[in-house]
Amino acid sequence: MDFEFTAEQVAIRDTIRELVQDRVAPRAAEIDQTAEYPKDIEKLFAENGILGIPFPEQYGGISGSSVTICMGIEEIAKACASSSLILAVQALGSYPILVAGTEEQKQRLCPPLASGEKVAAYALSEPGSGSDAAAMQTRAKKHGNEYVLNGTKQFITHGSIASTLVVFAQTDPGADHRGISAFVLERETSPWTVEKLEHKLGIRGSPTAQIVLEDVKVPASNRLGEEGAGFKIDTGPASAPRRLASPRALSTTRSTT
Amino acid sequence: MDLELAPEHAGLRAAVRELAQGVVQPLAAEVDREHRFPHEAINAAAEAGLLGVLVPRQYGGAGLDALAFAICIEELAQACASTAVIVDVHTSVGTEPILLFGDEEQKREWLPRLAKGELLGAFALTEPASGSDAASLKTTARRNGNSYVLNGTKVFITNIGQAGVYVVFARTGPDEKAAGITAFLVPAEAAGVKVGQVFQKMGLHGSPTGELVLEDVRVPAANRLGGEGQGFVVAMRALDSGRIGISGQALGIAQAAVDEARALMRQRGHEQGDDFTLAEMATRLESARLVAYHAAWLCSRGLPFTRQASMSKLHCTDTAMQVALDALQIAGDEGAVAGSPFERHMRDAKALQIYEGSNQVQRMVIARDLLRAG
Question: Which of A1, A242, B209, B322 is most buried, judged by most C-beta within 10 A?
Answer without folding.
Answer: B209
